[in-house]
Amino acid sequence: xxxxxxxxxxxxxxxxxxxxxxxxxxxxxxxxxxxxxxxxxxxxxxxxxxxxxxxxxxxxxxxxxxxxxxxxxxxxxxxxxxxxxxxxxxxxxxxxxxxxxxxxxxxxxxxxxxxxxxxxxxxxxxxxxxxxxxxxxxxxxxxxxxxxxxxxxxxxxx
Length: 158
Prior knowledge:
Elements: E1 2-5, E2 10-15, E3 18-23, E4 36-40, E5 43-47, H1 54-63, E6 67-68, H2 74-88, E7 93-98, E8 107-108, E9 120-121, E10 128-131, E11 140-143, E12 150-156
Parallel strand pairs: 7-12, 9-11
Antiparallel strand pairs: 1-2, 2-3, 4-5, 5-12, 6-12, 7-8, 7-10, 10-11
Membrane topology: Single-pass type II membrane protein
Protein name: Si:ch211-232p21.6
GO cellular component, one term: plasma membrane
């Protein structure tokens, strides 16, 4: 069920075995509304069901009070990959990593550089990164930012 409280702008969402609470300063009431919320270590991860290009996906994440996910550790990467397998293993998801400013210089959406060793799957030589749950070892790939993909948003718990 969804319940909106105008005074606190609380957003309650219940999905199967996950019950999550998120206080939003803005609530996106159109197709940005996600299907799957998962909480882990003080963060909400939002897995979209709809497909959008990278820019539109990022805007939806921002409308929810977050941004496309920034993956800070191999543990976080494995957690997200497992969630993708649980939800739908054969679908790529946008993450908040791009080299659109300078070819080969990968920056997260908060402008921090990619500083860990990532095993990339050679999908193409494009500018926006995706994560997959089904690629063995190589969890990330880069594809055209204009492709229509699902996304993972990261929203801080408030």
